[in-house]
């Protein structure tokens, strides 16, 4: 996770978040730092983000905003493809939104009332850990 000020938009932070990803491998070896695919909502379809993903060989499932679709329709030869496979993949995005909703049930996280960023980050880590433990206990019972 990357903690920023409240006035920083998500689009500009996508690269920073993806660069911090470290996924342990099943066997030996260093952690993976590049996902196979990124699922994102309509807040992320900027040219810069798509170019950044393309240069790193990361597939993207990001629907375009209505204004971008209208702009593309004016230019010949620029197809708009968010077909059935993309729509099926995008259905997995609700997991992320549900996670944010669970975190925001904690009043301090939803209000961002902490003065220091490290305290806010600690609160998010604590809440995420407790949610994970509770979910894991429910799933194993």
UniProtKB/TrEMBL annotation:
Residue span, Transposase IS4-like domain: 1-129
Q: Which InterPro entries match?
A: Transposase_11 (IPR002559)
One Pfam family it belongs to? DDE_Tnp_1
Which protein, by its recorded name, is this?
Transposase IS4-like domain-containing protein
Task: Give the organism the record lists.
Answer: Gordonia alkaliphila
**Source organism phylogeny:** Bacteria, Bacillati, Actinomycetota, Actinomycetes, Mycobacteriales
């Amino acid at each position: 996770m990357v903690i920023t000020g409240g006035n920083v938009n998500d689009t500009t932070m996508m690269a920073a978040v993806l660069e911090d990803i470290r996924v342990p491998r099943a066997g030996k070896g260093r952690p993976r730092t590049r996902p196979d695919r990124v699922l994102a909502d309509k807040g992320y379809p900027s040219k810069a983000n798509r170019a950044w993903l393309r240069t790193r060989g990361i597939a993207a499932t990001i629907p375009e905003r209505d204004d971008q679709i209208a702009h593309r329709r004016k230019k010949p030869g620029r197809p708009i493809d968010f077909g059935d496979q993309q729509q099926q993949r995008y259905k997995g995005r609700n997991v992320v939104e549900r996670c944010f909703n669970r975190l925001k049930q904690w009043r301090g996280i939803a209000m961002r009332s902490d003065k220091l960023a490290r305290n806010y980050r600690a609160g998010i880590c604590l809440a995420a850990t407790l949610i994970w433990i509770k979910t894991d206990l429910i799933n194993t019972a």
